Amino acid sequence: MEAAHNGPAAAAPGPVILELSVGSPDQMRDLGRRIAAVLAPGDLVMLTGELGAGKTTLTRGLGEGLGVRGAVTSPTFVIARVHPPLGTGPALVHVDAYRLGGGLDEMEDLDLDVSLPESVVVVEWGDGKVEELAEDRLHVVIDRAVGDTDDERRTVRLVGIGARWAGLRTDLPEA
After folding, report:
1. Total-model pTM
2. How far is CA 72 from the centre of its chain?
3. pLDDT tens digits for 47-76?
4. Of 11, 15, 24, which is closest to residue 139 (Cα–Cα)?
5. CB-count exposure of residue 173 (10 Å: 0-12, 13-18, 19+)
């Protein structure tokens, strides 16, 4: 017997996009703290940007906002670091996928799918590698001036993908 249909299938919501200007590393950390205020266990955050764009600085702010233990530093040489919570919040799993060439198969060795339900997982350089971990995810794209410049200004695009991020525009605390 066929199941009854209750009208057309609901379309998946399109991405929610916020574009912000950041003028200094301190402001990037502050943005990380603001984003942390809306994060919950099970959230996947992907960070994209050139070397020196501010991905790790943003992640430091996420760690401060989540109240995790340990200094948040780039996990480039260890691939992943786990920062346990100091209180009742989620752990922060910080991954640098720069040196990982494969897709999700290579990422499976890190057991991120096991960590994801109870942690906030932040993946630098995760494009094309971790999207399958979560249908809903926050993609943070950081653009900076390239070349020999002291310009600290950044354009940051927050792209909320999936129903989890539908309220991003209103949920993100003001600066």
Report:
1. 0.84
2. 14
3. 999 988 999 999 999 999 999 998 888 766
4. 15
5. exposed
